[in-house]
Write a structure and sequence with these properties.
Elements lengths: L2 H14 L2 H4 L13 H5 L9 E3 L4 E3 L7 E7 L2 E6 L5 E7 L4 E2 L12 E4 L3 E7 H8 L3 H27 L2 H7 L1
Antiparallel strand pairs: 1-8, 2-7, 3-6, 3-8, 4-5, 4-7
Length: 173
């Protein structure tokens, strides 16, 4: 194959290989359990990566939910604000975690996600995920597992908040 043909083949491969297939944290987040062929179908699900500076909000409580967000690098905290203005941290999110699952049922984010450090996320268009999951059982299973993990995390958080002292909660974190 000549140089021109090699360059053309490389360009086609580059366009065909979505971020999830080559992502260094792809094995940790949304694409977990999917084959390479199945991961390539995720190309239409992801939008261009977003950079979020330390202290900035990725989304705010009450915002319309369009995407889930896979943390590519950096970290976030999610907070809820009570009626009297007190903020409560509801979670910490690191590379490989997917944020925004709480907004699926009501189509609005329940919390605010703030970058703890300069971070980068991969927006995952939820309507595309739903459509694709109808055709890829492994993707539907992965989505179900993510929702189940979120429920289990909430149960552990309730247990921690209700039964442990402040020092024990810190140690558990």
């Amino acid at each position: 194959m000549n140089d021109l043909a090699l360059k053309a083949a490389a360009a086609v491969q580059e366009r065909a290989a979505p971020g999830c297939a080559l992502c260094p944290v792809g094995s940790l987040c949304f694409a977990t359990g999917l084959t390479i062929d199945q991961r390539q179908h995720l190309a239409g699900v992801t939008e261009p990566r977003l950079k979020v500076r330390k202290g900035e909000a990725l989304f705010n409580a009450g915002d319309h939910m369009r995407n889930l967000y896979a943390v590519r690098r950096g970290s976030f905290k999610t907070t809820l604000v009570s009626a009297d203005g007190r903020a409560q941290i509801t979670g910490f999110w690191m590379s490989g975690d997917v944020m925004g699952l709480e907004a699926i049922s009501g189509n609005r984010h329940l919390c605010t996600a703030l970058a703890i450090e300069d971070s980068e996320v991969c927006p995952l268009v939820f309507s595309h995920i739903e459509r694709l999951a109808r055709h890829i059982p492994a993707l539907q299973h992965r989505l179900s597992c993510m929702l189940s993990q979120e429920i289990a995390r909430e149960y552990r958080l309730r247990l921690c908040m209700g039964t442990l002292s402040a020092d024990e909660r810190l140690a558990a974190f």
